[in-house]
C-alpha cells in the first residue's frame, strides 16, 4: 500500500521508543499475547477437497486428528472460502457501512485500516474490536495497517510511538532496531492489529534520482541489498516477536521504477532480472519466516513483459513460490484504486491475481468486494483448475490464521 497521508505530527527522536509509557505498554501486551513468534508454514496439504458445499463430518477419533484449519475449510462453502481471499479497507477512525457489508455479506476475512489516525491506541482498539465482532466466532479477521514509520505511519497518537523513517532506521544497529520493532509491534498487538504491511524491502540505488513510490519518501532502509536485508529482517523479527505478522513488500522490488503505480499507468522496471541481486532482501525474509509477501503491480520487462507482477504466473508462482520457496500468504498491493490496474475490470483483477498464484486480494475500496467475490466464484464454478487454486489459497490463509490464533 502506498496511499500516503502526510503526518502533521513532527517526528520525535527515536529515543521516544524507549519511553516509560512504551515500556509499560510493552510489558502489558506481552503478558496477553496468545502466540509465540515461531515461523510457520502455510503450504496447502494435498487433501484439499474439491466440493464447494459445506459438510460436517462425524466426530470420530480420526476426524479429531485433522488439523483445525483443514476442518474449518472442509465445512466452508465456496462462497465462504472465496471471502477469505479478500482484504478490504476500513477507515482507521471508525467502521464504515461498506466494510460491514463486505464482512457480513461477502464473507470477507481480512481488513486494512486505511488512512492516518491520531486518535491513539485505545480508539484503534475500539475499531478493531468492532470489526472482530462482525466476523464468525470461529474464524476471526486478519486486521492490518501500514506502520512503516516516517511519512507512512497510519496509527498515531497516545499509545503509539512516533516512528522515524526507514532510511533513518537503516542507520541503527540491526539488533537494536529489532528491539525497537518489537516495541512498535507490541503497540499494534495491543490495539488489535495482527498484520503489519511492513517492512519495505525495496532497494533504491544511490544517486538513482527520483523514485516516487519509495526513495522520494525515504521508505527504503538503505541503498544496497545488504543494508536493506539486515535492517528489513531485523524489523521482521521484531514484529514476529510481538505476535504481529509482518508483510515484506513489494516483490520483486519497486526501487528502480520512475512512477508510482497508485497514480500512474504503465509503470515499468526495465532492469530487474529473475536472478537479480536486488532480490536478496526478499530471499532473506523468506528464509527468516515471513508469513506474508506483498506483490508489486509494476511491470518487469526483463522477466514477464507487459504483465503486472501481481498478475504474472512467472513472478508469483515461478519466482516467489519456486525460486525463493515461499510457502506463506501472497498478498497483492492495492488492486482497488491503483491506476496501474485500472485497465482491467474489478472482478478480473481478483481473478488474474489468484490465477497467477496469489492468495489475498487487497482493495482499498470495500464496495468492490461483491464484484470481486462474484467473479472468483463464477470462474471457480466454470474451471476446475481455477477452483483448485481458490481452495489452495483459502486453506493457506486459514493456516496462517491458525498460526496467529484466529481460529477456534
Describe this structure in words.
The structure is a single chain. With 408 residues, the protein is an alpha/beta fold. It has a single domain (77-403), classed as Glycoside hydrolase, family 3, N-terminal domain (TIM Barrel, Alpha-Beta Barrel), CATH 3.20.20.300. It has 14 helices and twelve strands. It has helices spanning 20-32, 61-64, 68-75, 78-83, 97-104, 121-134, 166-169, 174-190, 225-241, 280-287, 313-323, 346-356, 369-382, 384-403, and strands spanning 86-91, 110-114, 142-145, 147-149, 152-153, 195-196, 245-251, 268-269, 292-295, 299-300, 329-332, 361-363. It has an eight-stranded parallel sheet with strand order 11-9-7-6-3-2-1-12. Strand 1, helix 5 and strand 2 form a beta-alpha-beta unit. Helix 9 packs parallel to helix 10 (280-287) and helix 12 packs across helix 13. The protein is globular, with a radius of gyration of 20 Å. The two termini are 30 Å apart. 55% of the residues are buried. Mean pLDDT is 88; it is low at 1-61.
List its traits.
408 residues, TIM Barrel, 12 strands, disordered N terminus
Write a short abstract of this structure.
By secondary structure, the protein is an alpha/beta fold.
Amino acid at each position: 500500500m502506498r496511499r500516503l497521508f502526510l503526518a502533521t505530527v513532527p517526528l520525535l527522536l527515536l529515543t521516544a521508543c524507549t519511553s516509560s509509557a512504551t515500556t509499560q505498554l510493552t510489558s502489558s501486551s506481552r503478558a496477553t499475547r496468545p502466540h509465540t513468534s515461531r515461523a510457520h508454514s502455510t503450504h496447502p496439504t494435498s487433501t484439499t477437497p474439491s466440493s464447494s458445499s459445506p459438510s460436517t463430518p462425524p466426530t470420530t477419533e480420526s476426524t479429531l486428528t485433522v488439523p483445525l484449519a483443514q476442518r474449518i475449510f472442509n465445512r466452508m462453502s465456496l462462497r465462504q472460502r472465496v471471502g477469505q481471499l479478500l482484504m478490504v479497507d476500513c477507515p482507521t477512525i471508525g467502521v464504515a457501512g461498506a466494510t460491514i457489508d463486505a464482512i457480513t455479506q461477502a464473507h470477507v476475512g481480512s481488513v486494512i485500516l486505511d488512512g492516518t489516525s491520531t486518535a491513539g491506541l485505545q480508539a484503534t482498539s475500539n475499531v478493531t474490536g468492532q470489526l472482530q465482532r462482525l466476523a464468525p466466532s470461529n474464524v476471526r479477521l486478519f486486521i492490518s495497517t501500514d506502520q512503516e514509520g516516517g511519512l507512512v505511519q497510519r496509527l498515531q497518537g497516545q499509545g503509539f510511538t512516533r516512528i522515524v523513517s526507514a532510511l533513518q532506521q537503516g542507520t541503527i544497529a540491526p539488533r537494536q532496531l529489532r528491539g525497537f520493532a518489537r516495541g512498535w509491534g507490541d503497540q499494534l498487538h495491543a490495539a488489535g492489529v495482527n498484520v503489519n504491511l511492513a517492512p519495505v524491502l525495496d532497494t533504491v540505488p544511490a544517486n538513482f534520482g527520483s523514485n516516487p513510490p519509495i526513495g522520494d519518501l525515504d521508505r527504503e532502509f538503505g541503498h544496497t541489498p545488504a543494508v536493506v536485508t539486515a535492517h528489513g529482517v531485523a524489523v521482521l523479527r521484531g514484529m514476529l516477536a510481538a505476535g504481529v505478522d509482518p508483510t515484506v513488500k513489494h516483490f520483486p522490488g519497486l526501487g528502480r521504477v520512475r512512477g508510482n503505480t497508485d497514480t500512474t499507468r504503465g509503470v515499468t522496471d526495465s532492469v530487474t532480472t529473475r536472478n537479480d541481486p536486488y532480490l536478496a532482501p526478499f530471499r532473506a525474509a523468506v528464509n527468516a519466516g515471513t508469513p506474508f509477501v506483498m506483490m508489486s503491480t509494476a511491470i518487469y520487462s526483463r522477466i514477464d513483459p507487459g504483465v503486472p507482477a501481481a498478475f504474472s504466473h512467472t513472478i508469483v508462482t515461478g519466482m516467489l513460490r519456486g525460486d525463493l520457496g515461499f510457502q506463506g500468504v501472497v498478498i497483492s498491493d492495492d488492486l482497488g484504486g491503483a491506476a496501474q490496474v485500472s485497465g482491467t475490470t474489478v472482478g478480473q483483477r481478483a481473478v488474474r491475481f489468484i490465477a497467477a498464484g496469489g492468495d489475498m486480494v487487497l482493495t482499498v475500496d470495500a464496495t468492490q468486494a461483491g464484484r470481486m467475490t462474484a467473479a472468483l466464484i463464477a470462474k471457480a464454478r466454470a474451471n476446475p483448475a481455477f477452483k483448485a487454486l481458490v481452495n489452495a489459497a483459502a486453506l493457506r490463509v486459514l493456516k496462517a490464521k491458525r498460526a496467529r490464533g484466529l481460529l477456534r
